[in-house]
Amino acid sequence: MYDGIVQTVTLAAGLLGEMVPMMIAGVFLAEVLVALNIAGRIAALSRPLTSFACLREECGTSFLMAFVSPPAASAMLVDYHTKEIISRKELIIAAVMNSFPTVVMHWRYLLPVYIPLLGIPGLIYFGLLLLVGLAKTAFIMVIGRTILTPPQCTPVIMAEEPVVTLREALRTACTSSKKTLVRLLSITVPTIVLVAFLINAGVFDRLAGLMQGAGAVFPVPPEGFAIIAAQFGSFVAGASVASTLLAAGDMTWQQIVLTLLVGNVLTSVTRSIRWLGSSYVAIFGMRTGTEIMLVSTMLRNGIMVLLVAALAYGFGWG
């Protein structure tokens, strides 16, 4: 029991060490940008996206931040929502949109593994993941355009804005971000501890074992189930098994890519639940975080299943 407590505390400390600094940085940066009156100028870079989705420009700032730090981007959205700059619907849609930069930046971890082990098929697999992420973002943008009211464009009045120095902006940001951070951390810390406990208790491993059996409904050759089983351990393990089967000629490169996609769908369920606490609930709260997770996962998996079906039956990869 003592060892279990130590492992839980160690894991929770590691997760908090990765997330909390980025959350603090995200909220603080959002406040600094608002204080300096430059958030709109930065958001202009993503204005075509936010404009099409009927989102406020502040969401564009968060979208760009997601390329650097997803937790910081999420914290910025929470800060905007707390200040009633954006509505709850805008928060959810913007949070789902922010998942695309996260997928793009995964090249730092995926390509150094997939290209050496699988070569061109690994690059194709990563390209298909980007395609799915792009399709999901486009779909949620259409939803935003459908259900959101376009923000009113008030005419710009040429008035002298008070010049705010960096020191004043930093002082203002320190004061205004305190309340948001206290609320965020009061949710984040206990949630992360609970997630760490469930991980060490093996709850997610048992769930992964149940999900492996669902692979039989997909067009995967018998040899491919070894890849899917390995993917539940890690994407590196899955790529290693796939590399061995490809080199031995037991599977074609098309079957390898298709199997990796199927494994991605199955593992995403347990992955989303496992990191629900640290990625969604810990930042957005239980209700909103769960809703964002469900919308994001269902959209992604739905598009992925359609892609698998198209490749397997339309292009004969199965």
Q: What does this entry look like structurally?
A:
Residues about 155-160 have low confidence and may be disordered. Helices cover about 80% and strands about 0% of the residues. Helix 1 (about 1-35) packs across helix 5 and helix 9 crosses helix 14. The protein is mainly α and about 325 residues long. It has one domain (about 1-315). The chain has helices at about 1-35, 40-45, 45-50, 55-65, 70-80, 90-95, 100-105, 105-120, 120-145, 165-200, 205-210, 225-230, 235-250, 255-275, 275-285, 285-315.
Describe the SSE topology:
Layout: H1 2-35, H2 39-43, H3 47-52, H4 57-65, H5 70-82, H6 88-97, H7 99-105, H8 107-118, H9 120-147, H10 166-200, H11 203-212, H12 224-231, H13 235-248, H14 253-274, H15 276-284, H16 286-314
Distance, first to last CA: 47 Å
Mind summarizing the main beta sheet?
none
Whole-number tally of structural domains: 1
Number of strands: 0
Shape: globular
What does the oligomeric state look like here?
A: single chain
How large a portion of the residues is in β-strands, by DSSP E? under 5%
Q: Give the H and E element order.
A: HHHHHHHHHHHHHHHH
Helix content bin: over 70%
Round the mean pLDDT to the nearest integer and report it. Answer: 82
Q: What class do helices, strands and sheet pairing give?
A: mainly alpha
The DSSP helix count reads 16
